[in-house]
Amino acid sequence: MKVCYIISETDKAVFFEQTALHLKQQNLDVSYILINSTDGALHRFLVENGFTVYTFEAGSLLKSRKTILACKKLLKELAISHVHCHLASANWIGLWAAKLAGIPNRIYTRHSGKPLNLGWKERIIDKVQNRLATKIVAISKNIDELLAGQGISSGKRVLVHHGFELNRFANPDPEEVGRLNRQNNPGHQQPVIGVIARWMEWKGIHYTIDAFSELLKEKPDALLCLFGASENADYASGIRTKLSHLPERNYRVISFENNVFDLYQLFDVYVHVPVNPQCEAFGQTYVEALAAGIPSIFTLSGIAREFVVHEEHALVVPFRDSRAIYEAMIRLLDDETLCTKLKTNGVKRVNELFSFDAYIRQLQTVYSS
């Protein structure tokens, strides 16, 4: 068995790094093709850890013919038996290349949920990719249901939850926590409300900003930290408009932080509130926040639908409800007993469900079936 991972548009990704190391520990023959990711953190990590890595640059999907053919040639030269694709360009280029190369095992992981607006181009791309793949990995029941709705048979779909280095979240590095606090909260403001999400409308960040605005009336020294800021995202202007109504001292906008393991320790309360049940494909941040022991406010989208229980693991609020988010913030900030309960139960539950060892075992089953 020779497996080739094809990944696109990725700079830093702890999940892919840890997957690579765990597969290597299993003595699996794995190589990598990175598309539009040359010289990024993931590229450097793979090279430094002894993996064979090839890179391609590609334009739009409609102009990817040359890249597909080059990728096909490489896959044949490497005698690859399994191709596993992740993310949009990699799915399109990798699945076509694998099909043309006659590779019998063509797998892609579906990382995207149901968008608020699905265009005809996206529908066609989904249909083609689903036809090209021999197996499709659904990362949550949410995605499994989406694929079933697209007519994908149960024999072609396989449910595999993400794995996490849970112990690392539970054991933060004090020096790194100090660095992150100095960098992002130099004035030692309290309380700190945290968000880690791209600036997409479906992430619901604007509802959190409205809730935080209400919180400031009672806690004028509060700080809102928005990690994952992306000025070119589809809802950046809407979020900037919301932020313009807040005092500048009460919010921070941070595009990216490599150290996701210790980042959550900055927050007194964490908020992740996608706007409907289907838009979040998985939502790694649900698991990360609970693994880090941070009192959290969630809507039930993606993987949260499968395991998060209101007042057991987090406070669950209705979709698109800034008032409920505000009230949950106040409750968590004022009720230490509740926070202790949520932390204990949250850590326990994610350890039961999302270990990396379990994830790798499931992957090996996919590859051997």
Give a structural overview.
- The protein is α/β, with parallel strands linked by helices and 369 residues long.
- The protein has two domains: 2-163 and 355-368, Rossmann fold (3-Layer(aba) Sandwich); 171-353, Glycogen Phosphorylase B (Rossmann fold).
- The protein is 45% helix and 16% strand.
- It has helices at 14-25, 41-48, 65-77, 88-100, 120-132, 141-149, 166-170, 174-184, 205-218, 236-243, 260-263, 284-291, 304-307, 322-334, 336-353, 356-368; strands spanning 2-8, 29-35, 52-56, 82-86, 105-110, 135-138, 157-159, 192-196, 223-227, 251-254, 269-272, 296-298, 315-316.
- A seven-stranded parallel sheet has the order 3-2-1-4-5-6-7, with helices on both faces.
- α9 packs across α14 (322-334).
- It starts with a strand and ends with a helix.
